[in-house]
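Treating backbone geometry as a discrete language has practical consequences that deserve illustration. No coordinates are needed to read the tokens, only the vocabulary itself. For completeness, the protein is quoted in full, as a sequence line and a line of structure tokens:
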Amino acid sequence: MKLNTRINGKEYCLEIKPNAMLIDVLRQAGFKGVKFGCGEGSCGACAVMINGRPRNSCITLAGAAEGVEILTVEGLGNPEKPHVLQQAFVDSGSTQCGYCNPGSLIAAKALLDSNPNPTAEDVKDALDGNLCRCTGYVKRIDAVLQAAEASKKTRKSTRGKK
């Protein structure tokens, strides 16, 4: 069976089994930032964005990704040019082992895409499905709020440049 989808802005035609889960297909295609955690959709480590909405790839059949836009953490940024959220996670000290970071970053991106001025409560709600055993959650909430503020400044500075 063929899966035609767009991952991180690039078109892919992947060979899949009818019962394949999206996490397995993404990892086999080289997207190692999608982490396997619980396998039942409750830890958030496998989160990706599908058509702009966060989804747990461990409970999503790969066939459901036909013709959709998928964003993995690899599509956010890279070490040379990190996304504002990635930089905020580093700056706030909210990364330790890093296993849960990709899913948390995806959840945070989805939040900021829909609400560029979140409250701490909004961030808590958005990150609620992402479990972290190392750092806890306060620094992550701070990081998302910091990224929102940095994005706000960037938007203001680019408005005047046309």
